[in-house]
Amino acid sequence: MRSLLILGAGGFGQMIKETALALGYEKVVFLDDAAKGEDVIGMCCDYVLRHSDYPAAVAAFGNNKTRLFWTDKLLEEGYEVPAMVHPSAIVSPSATLEPGCFIMQRVVVNTHTRIERAALINSGAVVDHDSIVCAGAHVGLGSVVKANCTIESGRKVEAGEVILSTRRKIEGVDSRSLEDAVYAFGFGPQCSYVKPFGEGHINETYAVYMPGQDGKEVPLYVLQRININVFKNPDQVMDNIFGVTEYLRNIIRQEGGDLDRETLSYIKTKDGESYFEDDNGQPWRCLHYVPNSVCYQQVERPEQFYQSALSFGHFLKQLGEYPAESLYETIPQFHDTRKRFRDFVEAERKDVKNRARVCRSEIDFVLAREKDCGTLMEQLEDGVLPLRVTHNDTKLNNILFDKDTEEGLCIIDLDTIMPGLAANDFGDSIRFGASTAEEDEQDLEKVHFDIDLYEIYVKGYLEMAKEVLTPAEIESLPWGARLMTLECGMRFLADFLQGDVYFKTAYPEHNLVRARTQFRLVKEMEEQFDKMKDVLKKYI
Ligand code: GN1
Ligand code: MG
After folding, report:
1. Which of 43, 53, 233, 489 has the greatest number of beta carbons closer than 10 A?
2. pLDDT the model gives residue 148
């Protein structure tokens, strides 16, 4: 005979008795501290004694705390604690019902919901898809919990109440705007945690983790707050990015490549926007995490640098036919080195933080090179060098590598894709990758321009891009290296003088340290400039 022991013989307990009988239990008895009656066989504390006679029991108290408390006691004691589902309820096969929950008459529990232990879904309520009713919560008579909601443990949803949306605390989400962004892209219900991600100097980046197939947490998305101090017009930035990535996906399809991993794929907000604007007016965007990829801050093996040369050369080719006129200039005059020089002079003149006195020799280093700054710009104005669609921020850590094959996989950081010079893309890669130290190495003795790495990059880049580059462009590449490095150093130093308002810094002299490494590299490139040109000739 199927029997059931019910703790609590009050009104709700009686409803559960009827439900139990309707479900085919034949012998149903109560434990209750106050009620008397034929079917009340003892007090609640007798539950241990009764276990041998009654293998199954539930705690049917209307009070949320009491119901959860006794459900846990029964489970600890080793009782079978069934989920009680009235025969008239409709429960999706994909819903999870935990022990000791109650699903009453005419309730609807929709797809992928979870009803935790001792939760009560009362008569006529609807819990829509992907919602969670936590342990011991009560969803009242005729109420509606809309999709993707979480009803916290112990909470009572009143009779007839409609829950439109809820939020839960997500680990790593430490600001209101980040939380708003997580929810704007629809990750709220599934997201396990959020962690800072990447080494960029401009935007704020997070990886969004969710449960993977085997239950382990995996990063599935990257969420990024665009720095509007740097990118004044996020609409235009996102227009460029959506345009370029869509175009690249078509090309990758024609090349037979991997559409999910060889270019970034951005997603829209739940409202269909290309980014989300938080309450402070800050834009957030989101893209798929590229699985099985890795990013390097410095060349560890020469092969990596060669791979990055192939990748950037390939990128230039892939975008060869891209309609450049459709691109917005996201940062005007981004690599106009003469303008960068003027900005630098202005920063030095104003010296708002009174820092010029600690970097006199670095300032002089820049001032002595005013003439160099015009070298490529003049060739552009004279029509010697053509404008192309370029990346403009081609450092090694803006490429993802395939973890298994170690090949260059995907170019990232597409914010500055604009018409520009091939020499600048080539040069920025050399600036960052052909150095023996990281960009912010404090010990200058460790910082050298590595001509062998330079050669490796020249080889890879020309293997890929030689056929599309003009002879003048090829000849301009060594100057690109010198000028991108000088320009970047000037930008770091100008930012130091202005009080670190542009690049993220970790300590007060960070930008000065960065500027020094760049100037060390410039000096060594100048010393070896003839050699750099000779190396280039070997690969033409
Ligand atoms: C910045 O965002 P990130 O870290 O990839 C900067 C580049 C500099 C680089 C120096 C938009 O790039 O121009 O070369 O730092 N990006 C912008 O490491 O200014
Ligand atoms: Mg970057």
Report:
1. 489
2. 86
Contacts of 53 (CB under 8 A, 6+ apart): 3
CA–CA separation, 54 vs 5, rounded Å? 6
Q: Which residues line ligand 1 (CB under 6 A)?
A: 200-202, 230, 393, 395, 398, 413, 415-416, 439, 488
For residue 392, is pLDDT > 90? yes
CA–CA distance, 6 with 16 (Å, rounded to integer): 8
Nearest protein CA to atom 17 of ligand 1, as residue = 202
**pTM of the predicted model as reported, rounded to 2 decimal places:** 0.78
What's residue 166's pLDDT? 80
Mutate which of 199, 201, 203, 334 to test ligand 1's pocket (most atoms within 8 Å of Cβ)?
201
Q: Which two tokens stand for residue 238?
A: 């996102």
Interacting residues of 503 by C-beta distance below 8 A, sequence separation 6+? 201, 202, 491, 492, 495, 510, 511, 514
Nearest ligand for residue 428 CA = 1
The best mutation among 232, 308, 337, 395 to test binding of ligand 1, ranked by most ligand atoms within 8 Å of the C-beta, falls on 395
Going by pLDDT thresholds of 50, 70 and 90, the confidence category of residue 266 is: very high
Ligand approaching nearest to the C-alpha of 416: 1
Instruction: Give Cα 448 to chain centroid, integer Å.
Output: 34
Report CA-CA distances (Å) from 228 to 59, 282, 415, 502, 511. Answer: 56, 7, 12, 11, 20
The phi, psi pair for 435, rounded to 5°, reads -110, 150
Q: Which residues contact 465 (CB under 8 A, 6 or more apart)?
A: 313, 314, 316, 317, 422
